[in-house]
Amino acid sequence: MKSITIKGSERESVGKAATRAARNAGRVPCVLYGGDQPVHFTAEEKAFKNLVYTPNVHTVVIDLEGGKQFNAVLQDIQFHPVTDNILHIDFYQLHQDKEITMDVPVKITGTSPGVLGGGVLRLNQRKLKVRALPANLPDFVEANISELEMGNKLYVTKLETNNFKILNPENTVVAQVRISRAAMKAAQEAAKAAKAPAKGKKK
């Protein structure tokens, strides 16, 4: 999985006044959990742009002044209810020998015969819950729709996994090809035409 580096400064004071001052200065108060003790730090709000405002998922290298570095993942984020500015972020430290659970985007690949035949592709799951060692976390889970005929569903059990586990229930539908309204109308009209008596034929 791709990583983003966040440069920050460790906080000595974590009270309300210090937190307010950090926000007024355009910095986001953050806490890193998962180590021997929590690490409090701040970073410029614009530093989180490529981490927060994207459909992709990344791990994070927290680079603090003084040479301290931590590998982590975003655990929780709080936004201002009116301005949508970032108020606070929690991170969780990664350990190379410990598995981590993350929501990873689904990437559709292949061409569905059902779609070519007039069906409509629906992506039921945009993200799936994945568990793996940090080094094995995928950037996305590939969902190949090459065998989906019209009306078929692609279940999570049909997805390929490489050194990671998908934790969603086995009956989870990732994608499906629905019959379009146009195709359904055409089928209904064809059925009516087949039932109708031929012109000029005596009853």
UniProtKB/TrEMBL annotation:
Large ribosomal subunit protein bL25 L25 domain: residues covered: 6-91
Keyword Transferase set for record: no
GO CC list: cytosolic large ribosomal subunit
Origin: domain of life: Bacteria
Gene Ontology biological process: translation
Keyword Transport among UniProt keywords: no
Pfam families cross-referenced by the UniProt entry: Ribosomal_L25p, Ribosomal_TL5_C
Stretches assigned to the Large ribosomal subunit protein bL25 beta domain: 99-179
Gene Ontology molecular function: any one: structural constituent of ribosome
Stored InterPro entries: Rbsml_bL25/Gln-tRNA_synth_N, Ribosomal_bL25/Gln-tRNA_synth, Ribosomal_bL25_b-dom, Ribosomal_bL25_C, Ribosomal_bL25_long, Ribosomal_L25_dom, Ribosomal_uL5_bac-type
Record key words, sorted: Ribonucleoprotein, Ribosomal protein, RNA-binding, rRNA-binding
HAMAP family for the chain: Ribosomal_bL25_CTC
Protein family membership: Belongs to the bacterial ribosomal protein bL25 family. CTC subfamily.
Task of the protein: This is one of the proteins that binds to the 5S RNA in the ribosome where it forms part of the central protuberance.
Complex formation: Part of the 50S ribosomal subunit; part of the 5S rRNA/L5/L18/L25 subcomplex. Contacts the 5S rRNA. Binds to the 5S rRNA independently of L5 and L18.
Listed name of the protein: Large ribosomal subunit protein bL25
